[in-house]
């Protein structure tokens, strides 16, 4: 059931999905060309957050446009919890696709740097934090009111990210714990945070009156 | 005969509207027409039954099981036709079906294809290009392809031309002929119910006005026409609604014998469900 609902999200934004695939391939190359001094992890993060949030916004927009279609889904045996979980699954699927496109990019453009587990885990943790906060708020307030949150994320990320990287370089977590251990802790924390976020979103959505 | 649907003490409150103590039942083999004017509470009741809106209190039982506790199992046994706009317009019918079908454990692709063929629908056609009638037919194909035992329809005939409405009623008749089924059919176009409904449930201002077997209901109400001189304080009380002009009066009564005895020079005619519905609405009293 979860798979079919994730597929549904891709179906309703199929017009934009291919475009976003191209964008996820091109963003790292664009960042590399414009600001080659930035590490590859920054372009990877920008590519991830841009692809996930753009597609998520397109899905929300379509669901806002056809609220009765969502009602129909909830009137079928699909559980509301599965519908909520599929939204997170949708984001995770895009995350994996972006990993793949970055891997391909880095194969052809070695200047992007090594595609490491550490880089994936830090980006996954960051994305999980943003999605984990954003989705429950969207379930609570609706698409209209949370659009600004999305715009802020998209606008602020390219400016804020280099600052975070600088701050992170100053601390260098990997000197405190081994790299693999650090990655595992980051991935585990992400999963815990996502599960907590799903739980909150389900609680909110279960009490929502649909149109 | 066992009840397919039992709604008892259903309450739901909004800021400006509330469903108050809604009670009704639909026995097996029954097509129930759920009537009322726009805003009377029909859609809110159906949404509460389907779990789309959380009820404030009350009980909803399907096939003897509490909906709240057996939601997943029971929804497998319900077919749903919501009013217009419940599909993603950019998708084809086939894509929409691929979203809905996996939700049902007893989905029958064969039944679905048969319905599409019967309705002359092309599965590759985009939903945005479908007429209102075709959308309803598609909704019916989805609703009837998983061996549903209860069909819930919210205003399915609204905005349809007479031919498609007639076809829809034929489909319902065929569906009921399979046996062991029930239909809850909300509408404000009561002429459709004159043809197929077994039971009529009327709601007004969020309260159930009556639940009656259709034939008994039509038998109990009569339209009375006569001279206004025949009206006095006592005879007026016999009417549910009364319209007076300089040429005479027209009223609806369910005290036909008493009216006949008290008012000799009158014309009595059969009433329709619409006449009865309007007479029962407070605004109909003049």
From TrEMBL, chain B:
<keyword id="KW-0067">ATP-binding</keyword>
<dbReference type="GO" id="GO:0005524">
    <property type="term" value="F:ATP binding"/>
</dbReference>
<dbReference type="InterPro" id="IPR027417">
    <property type="entry name" value="P-loop_NTPase"/>
</dbReference>
<dbReference type="InterPro" id="IPR003439">
    <property type="entry name" value="ABC_transporter-like_ATP-bd"/>
</dbReference>
<keyword id="KW-0547">Nucleotide-binding</keyword>
<dbReference type="Pfam" id="PF00005">
    <property type="entry name" value="ABC_tran"/>
</dbReference>
<keyword id="KW-0813">Transport</keyword>
<dbReference type="InterPro" id="IPR003593">
    <property type="entry name" value="AAA+_ATPase"/>
</dbReference>
<protein>
    <submittedName>
        <fullName>ABC transporter ATP-binding protein</fullName>
    </submittedName>
</protein>
<feature type="domain" description="ABC transporter">
    <location>
        <begin position="2"/>
        <end position="230"/>
    </location>
</feature>
<dbReference type="InterPro" id="IPR051782">
    <property type="entry name" value="ABC_Transporter_VariousFunc"/>
</dbReference>
């Amino acid at each position: 059931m979860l798979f079919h609902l994730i597929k549904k999200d891709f179906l309703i934004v199929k017009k934009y999905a291919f475009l976003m695939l191209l964008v996820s391939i091109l963003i790292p190359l664009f960042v590399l060309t414009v600001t080659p001094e930035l590490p590859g992890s920054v372009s990877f993060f920008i590519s991830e957050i841009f692809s996930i949030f753009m597609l998520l916004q397109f899905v929300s927009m379509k669901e806002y446009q056809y609220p009765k279609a969502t009602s129909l889904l909830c009137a079928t045996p699909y559980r509301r919890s599965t519908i909520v979980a599929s939204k997170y699954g949708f984001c995770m699927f895009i995350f994996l696709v972006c990993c793949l496109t970055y891997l391909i990019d880095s194969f052809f453009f070695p200047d992007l740097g090594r595609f490491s587990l550490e880089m994936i885990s830090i980006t996954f943790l960051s994305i999980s934090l943003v999605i984990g906060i954003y989705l429950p708020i969207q379930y609570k307030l609706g698409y209209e009111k949370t659009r600004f949150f999305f715009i802020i994320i998209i606008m602020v990320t390219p400016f804020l990210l280099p600052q975070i990287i600088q701050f992170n370089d100053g601390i260098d977590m990997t000197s405190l714990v081994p790299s693999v251990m650090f990655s595992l802790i980051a991935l585990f924390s992400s999963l815990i945070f996502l599960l907590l976020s799903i739980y909150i979103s389900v609680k909110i959505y279960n009490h929502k009156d649909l149109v | 005969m066992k009840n397919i649907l039992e709604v008892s003490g259903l309450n739901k409150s909004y800021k400006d509207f509330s469903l108050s103590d809604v009670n009704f039942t639909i026995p097996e083999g029954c097509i129930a027409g759920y009537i009322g004017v726009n805003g009377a509470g029909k859609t809110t009741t159906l949404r509460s039954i389907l779990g789309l809106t959380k009820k404030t209190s009350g009980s909803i039982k399907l096939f003897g099981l509490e909906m709240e506790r057996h939601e997943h199992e029971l929804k497998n046994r319900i077919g749903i036709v919501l009013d217009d706009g419940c599909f993603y317009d950019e998708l084809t019918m086939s894509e929409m079906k691929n979203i809905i079908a996996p939700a049902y454990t007893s989905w029958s692709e064969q039944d679905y294809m048969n319905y599409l063929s019967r309705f002359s629908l092309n599965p590759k056609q985009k939903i945005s290009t479908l007429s209102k009638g075709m959308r309803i037919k598609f909704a019916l194909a989805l609703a009837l392809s998983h061996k549903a035992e209860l069909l819930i329809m919210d205003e399915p005939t609204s905005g349809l031309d007479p031919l498609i409405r007639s076809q829809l009623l034929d489909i319902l008749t065929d569906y009921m002929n399979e046996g062991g089924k029930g239909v809850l059919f909300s509408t404000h176009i009561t002429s459709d119910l004159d043809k197929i409904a077994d039971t009529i449930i009327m709601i007004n201002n969020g309260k159930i006005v009556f639940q009656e077997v259709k034939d008994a209901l039509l038998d109990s109400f009569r339209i009375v026409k006569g001279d206004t001189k025949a009206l006095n304080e006592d005879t007026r009380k016999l009417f549910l609604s009364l319209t007076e002009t300089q040429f005479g009066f027209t009223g609806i009564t369910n005290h036909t014998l008493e009216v006949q005895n008290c008012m000799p020079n009158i014309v009595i005619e059969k009433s329709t469900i619409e006449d009865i519905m309007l007479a029962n609405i407070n605004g109909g009293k003049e």
